[in-house]
Every structure is written in C-alpha cells, then in structure tokens.
Design goal:
The structure holds 2 protein chains of 2 kinds.
Chain A (H helix, E strand, L loop, with lengths): L1 E5 L3 H13 L4 E5 L12 H6 L12 H6 L2 E4 L4 E5 L4 E4 L4 E3 L2 E4 L4 E2 L9 E2 L4 H13 L4 E5 L3 H12 L3 E5 L12 H13 L3 E3 L15 E4 L3 E2 L3 H4 L9 E3 L10 E3 L4 E5 L4 E3 L4 H15 L11 E6 L2 E7 L8 E7 L4 E8 L2 E8 L5 H10 L9
Parallel strand pairs in A: 1-2, 1-7, 2-3, 7-16, 9-13, 10-11, 10-13, 11-12, 15-17
Antiparallel strand pairs in A: 4-5, 5-6, 8-14, 17-18, 19-20, 20-23, 21-22, 22-23
Chain B lengths: L1 E7 L9 H5 L4 E3 L5 E3 L12 E6 L1 H13 L5 E4 L5 E3 L3
Antiparallel strand pairs in B: 1-4, 1-5, 2-3, 5-6
The chains are: A alpha/beta, B alpha+beta.
Chain lengths: ~375, ~90
C-alpha cells in the first residue's frame, strides 16, 4: 500500500505517524512545501515574544522521518492530482503514484494589496522570523496590526509584550465583528484601551493609517486555502475541500484533514471548516485510520482560545452567526463578561466567551450532548 | 502500573484544551483557562499544576498522547526516576 500525503503540518505529519503505526511495511510519502521538520505554529507567538527559543518549536527532528521510513520531501509543492490514474505531480516535475491520497495543505493567510518591506503576515516560521527581525530593526516604531482575527489578537499581544506602541486597526466597530455582538466587542475594545493600544475601528483602507517605514505593519485578515489545483482534479470544494465525517472526498481514495477540510461536523450537524490545531491533529489520525481500511468518523467539539490584553476569548463549536437560528446572550458589557450561545434547531451548537471562562465546560458539554437551549443552566 | 509526575507549565499553556479532550480525568481548565492536573478525576490536597499519579500502562500511553497533543508543549511527563518521557529531549 502506498500512501501519499500532501502537507507536512500537524494534520499530515500526524497521519504519516499513525499510518506507520498501523502498517510497518506501507510506503509513505510526505510532500511538504516548507523546508523545516514539523514545528508548532501555535508556539510561534511565544517565539516572537521570546518566551521559547527557536529549537523548542520543533515537534520532530529531521532524523525522525528516516527512522519512521517516511519519504519526506521538504520544499516541495504538489502541482496537480490525476485522480483517474492515481498520481500527483510535484514541483520538480516528478509523478508520484498513490493508492491512497491525503490532502492536508492547510490555509494561507489572506493577503492585502499593501506592499512594503515592513509588512508582516503571521503564518509560518519564516513569517515569525521576519517579524522578529522587524521588531529589532523597527525598535521605537509602532506595531500596527490590521485585522480582527485570532491571528491579529496574537500579533497585538506580541507587540504589547515587547512594549511597542501598538495600533489595532480593523474593519467594523470591533474585532471578530462577524462573530461577536456589540457587548462582547466593546469588552475587547475596553481591554485594548486599558492596555494603551491605539484602537482604530472601521478602517477599510490600510493606507489611511499613515504607516511609515519605521513602523511594522502586520496583517491578520483571516485565512483562505488554495483550492484551485484541487478543484482542477475534480475534487469537490466549497470554502474548503468537502468531505463526509470519515474525511473522504467525492473522489475515490482521496482524503482530507486539517484546516483545508470542510467536513461534515457531526458535533454540530453541518458541513464546516474548523481551523485549529487540535482538530487538525485529530483529523490526521482519523484520516490515516480510514486510509488504512477503517471506517472511523471524526467527531469532536473544537475550540479556539486566546488571551488578548489580559482578556480571555474562547470560541467553541459552530460560531457562524449566519448558520444560527438564534443567539442567546448571557452577561453584558456592564457586567464585564459576555457569553453568546449559538442555537440551531433548538439545540446549542456553538458559543463565544469573552471574560467568562466559567462557561467553557458547560457550553462545551452542551454542544457535545446536543443540549436544548431551554435546558441550559449557566 | 507506574508512577508518573505530570506537570503543566502555566506560562506556556494557552488553554487550547487538547489535553482535556484526550485525558479529561487528568486535565481540566481552571478559571484562567490554564490546564491543571488531577488524579483520576480527583484533586487530593489542592488544585495544582503538578502531581504524581499512579497509572496503568494504558493510562500512561493516553497521558503521553495528551501531552503530544498540546500545541505549545506545555505538558511534561517524568517517570519515577525523574527521567523526562515527554517532550523527548
């Protein structure tokens, strides 16, 4: 059996490891666009802050791939897939045949038409290193963050940690504007103000911030996966690559895991993308088992947590407002904490918590068990 | 059975809750979104980030998985002799 995995992040590498555990003699090929062995993207913020050194970011050594008899192809892109004849073509022109294919290429940061030497995105180890070098060369300049995402929150926190004059600019009146209500958003704005962040709401144009080359302009404007080459192969895509709960695509022998998967989320009863480390890892495990012949389903309540200017922000399950029938709010801006419960078909499917960590366990459990809103006790 | 020391570094922990998902009997989140350590669902003496627990081989394997699942490598596991089992150094 020959398994080809495209994407060497946590989803793809976990799948490779699991496949080796299941089958000592399988051929496993791991195609990775980046050059480094697996590292933790989640630790990159700690790295930029100087809390962990570079060598502590790595979860695998270079020698691990050989020890595991995994054919690791760093610095390599997958250019196309031939699903009829079962092979992929990689960036050096070689064709690699597969019996089972896993696509785990993750997302790409959405880029903005703003180009300058002092611009930083925040996705890869290379991005983190660029940011660190800008923090040195632009010491004394402003740390400008544009965007209302979790990545933007990490960037703001990193600049604050370094004591930089920090600007938080975003579209709409508050960060996470598509997900959070006004009370939640105002709590975040308050926390930013308390931390002496220069808050610029309703900024649609980066140029309006008047950044100089002495400032750092960092962008956290969300993610968008590169789907073109996958669509071209006849694999069904939406916001991500569409899969069932077994992480199978519409094409035989082709599986998907991680941020790029738009999977049938059994925990909330809707097809959606998750986009976080834990989900990517668990999906890598499930996909690997199914590639090896099992029929497992991925089922988990995913969550994303961040601390921004001392404020805890947690998203759990399905927090897409447009997919909710009702949003119930607990707490308020005045009370200092807000929880939103997202309800569909009478059942709780998602939650956002701003400075209300005490709701994390009950909300997670409510989503796990499909609790009716009327039975929820906070 | 083996005796393991389980430790969470609260400075590294970001409250991703991977460990809670994998091993809820050993890890839960406190009110600051930091994982603390339990002994089979119990908290003898007091709430703590570090605890010695006696576990079966199966439980030990699951605890290693929980530590591996942490995106910030905030979970440390040591055996009875103090040898660090995870992260492998």
């Amino acid at each position: 059996m020959r398994h080809v995995i495209v994407g060497g992040g946590i989803a793809g590498t976990t799948a490779a490891e699991e496949l080796r555990k299941i089958d000592a003699s399988a051929e496993i090929v791991l195609v990775c666009e980046e050059f480094e062995p697996l590292y933790s993207r989640v630790l990159l913020t700690h790295y930029v802050k100087g809390i962990v050194p570079r060598e502590k970011l790595f979860l695998k050594k270079e020698s691990w791939y050989q020890e595991q008899k995994i054919e690791w192809l760093p610095g390599t892109r997958c250019e196309s897939i031939d699903t009829t004849n079962g092979f992929i073509t990689i960036s050096d022109g070689r064709e690699i045949p597969y019996d089972r294919l896993l696509i785990a290429t993750g997302g790409e940061p959405r880029t903005l038409p703003y180009e300058s030497v002092n611009v930083a995105y925040f996705h890869s180890l290379g991005d983190a290193e660029h940011l660190i070098s800008l923090l040195r060369s632009r010491a004394g300049g402003r740390g400008i963050v544009y965007g209302g995402s979790f990545i933007a929150a990490d960037l703001i926190d990193a600049f604050l940690h370094h004591g930089a004059a920090t600007v938080a600019a975003f579209r709409g009146p508050w960060m996470f504007r598509r997900t959070l209500d006004a009370d939640s958003g105002e709590l975040i704005n308050d926390a930013l103000h308390r931390a002496n962040v220069d808050v610029r709401a309703n900024v649609d144009d980066l140029d309006s911030l008047g950044a100089t080359t002495g400032d750092i302009v960092s962008i956290g404007a969300g993610m968008e996966p590169d789907l073109g080459w996958i669509r071209d192969a006849g694999i069904a895509v939406g916001k991500g690559v569409l899969t069932n709960a077994r992480l199978e695509t519409n094409v035989k022998d082709a599986y998907v895991a991680g941020d790029i998967a738009e999977f049938d989320d059994l925990a909330v009863g809707r097809q959606r993308t998750a986009g976080n480390w834990t989900a990517a890892r668990e999906q890598g495990l499930v996909a690997a088992r199914n590639m090896a012949g099992a029929r497992d389903e991925y089922r988990a309540v995913s969550s994303y947590a961040a601390k921004l200017a001392g404020l805890d922000i947690v998203f759990i399950g399905d927090t897409d407002r447009t997919a909710a029938d009702e949003v119930r709010v607990i707490g308020s801006h005045e009370a200092g904490g807000v929880t939103q419960l997202f309800v569909r078909g009478g059942r709780i499917v998602g939650a956002t918590l701003v400075n209300r960590n005490q709701d994390r366990q009950p909300a997670t459990k409510a989503i796990q068990t499909g609790l009716r809103l009327s039975d929820y006790q906070s | 059975m083996s005796k393991l020391t389980i430790k969470v570094d609260p400075d590294l922990c970001i409250g991703a809750a991977s460990c809670v998902t994998v091993a809820p009997e050993t890890f839960q989140l406190n009110e600051e979104n930091k994982a603390y350590v339990l002994d089979h669902g119990q908290e003898p003496v007091s709430r703590t980030f570090e605890r010695v627990v006696e576990v079966t081989d199966e439980e030990k394997e699951n605890l290693i998985l929980a530590a591996q699942s942490c995106p910030t490598l905030a979970v440390f596991i040591y055996d009875e002799e103090g040898v660090q089992l995870f992260p492998d150094v």
